[in-house]
Structure formats: C-alpha cells, structure tokens
Amino acid sequence: MGLEDRDWYRKARSEREKQHRIDETRAKFSGFSRQHLGAKTVSPMKTGFIPMMIFWCAVMGLLYMLMTHYLKPRQAQILANGDLVINQSRDGHFYTTGTINGREANFMVDTGATMVSVSETFAQKAFIRGGVPTTFRTANGEQLGRVVEGVGVSIGPVSVTNVKVGVGLRMGDENEALLGQSFLSKFDITVIKNQMVLRSR
Predict the structure, then answer these.
(1) Which of 184, 169, 191, 180 is nearest to 120 (CA)?
(2) Which of 24, 67, 147, 201 is most exposed, with the fewest beta carbons within 10 Å of its own?
(3) Where are the beta strands (DSSP E) in the chain?
(4) Domain total for the chain?
C-alpha cells in the first residue's frame, strides 16, 4: 500500500468514526426525546430550535427587566442638613422621582429649561387645568401648550408650592417630566463629580 493509499485510508476511517459518533449522539437524543417528550421520532433539529428560542427569549426578557430596573430614576437622597442629592445617570443626565400636583413623575433635571414641563396626558391625570395658552419653542420646532401657575412640586420631603408648569410638551412616557428653573431656582445647585446637590435658599 502506497503513501497516498494509506492517507486515503486514514481519512476514510476518520470520517467513518466521526459519522459513527454523530449517529450515536442522534440515537441518544431520540431516546431521550421519546422518554421525556413522549415523541415517537423527534428530529434533533426541530426539538433543538424551540428550546433554543425559548432560552434566548428568556435571556432577552431578563436583560430588559434588569436594564429597566437599573435605568429607572431613583429617589433623591436627603442629607441630614436637608440637602437633596441626585446621582448622575450613565447617560450623563440627572434623574429623580417626585410628584407634581400629587401625581408621581420621573424627572430629568434640565437646568436650561425655564419651567417644569409635562405632557398634556400627565396634566389631565394630575388635574393640572387652565393656564395661559402659549407656544413652546423646542428642538423639534414650535409646539402649542399652556402655562399653569401655582402647582405643587415635590422631591422626597422637599416641596415647592408655587411652581410654573408648562403643559403640552411631548415626552417619551406620560410620567416623564422636565425639572426646570421654576423649581430649581429655589435652590443653590452644586455639581460635585457625579452628584448634583440642591440646597434650599
């Protein structure tokens, strides 16, 4: 037997052994399927695809819940001296929870915004009615809305009663709101590293 014949023989034997191992694995899988799934003949490809899809859907759902929990605005910390401390989020903004007219809101702090701003949907549910019609100039163009005075805004135990609120801006979610200068101007604001500290004047 020549060198080339020996190489061919080894390759053929290796292929036969590999095929034999594949057949054994398929046989074991079919036996497991018949025993545990009650199927007479189950294709490994068919049974493998469905559990794989269920697994990845579960993983994606878990990741979504974790990210939602992780990115959810947190209540501002209240120091012993009464200062409010808001931690910076990973996206560089400052978020906190609070209430507007008694309804819970997820605030994004915007020191460049003139007023606390909410959507019309939020305003209706929080019973923020009336106000003066106005036109808001936003990055997406002009938008009709209204300005309501004398609204109560709270973050934790800290409340401001006479706050101007702009109603009508489009937010990502109906409970989202901008925390603007009509509230922030009541505080001295200091940003230290990744924390914003609000101290009552």
Answers:
(1) 169
(2) 201
(3) 77-78, 84-87, 95-100, 103-109, 116-118, 132-138, 141-155, 158-167, 176-179, 187-192, 195-200
(4) 2
Question: What does the pLDDT look like over 133-147, one tens digit per residue?
Answer: 998 887 777 889 999
User: 191 and 109 in one domain?
Assistant: yes
Q: Are 118 and 127 in contact (CB under 8 A)?
A: no
CA–CA separation, 31 vs 43, rounded Å?
A: 11
Residues 34 and 66 in one domain: yes
CATH number at residue 162: 2.40.70.10
Range of the domain at 9: 3-71
Which tokens go with 13? 């034997």
What are the backbone angles phi and psi of residue 96, rounded to the nearest 5°?
-155, 165
Give the contacts of 153 (CB within 8 A, at least 6 positions apart): 98, 99, 100, 116, 159, 160, 163, 165, 179, 183
Per-residue pLDDT tens over the stretch 103-132: 999 999 999 899 999 999 999 999 999 999
- Give the residue carrying structure tokens 């054994």: 24
Task: Identify whether residues 93 and 31 lie together within a single domain.
Answer: no
CB atoms near residue 197 (< 10 Å): 17
Separation of alpha carbons 74 and 196, rounded Å: 13
Q: Compute the C-alpha angle 84/200/171, nearest 5°.
A: 60
pLDDT above 90 coverage of the chain, percent: 39
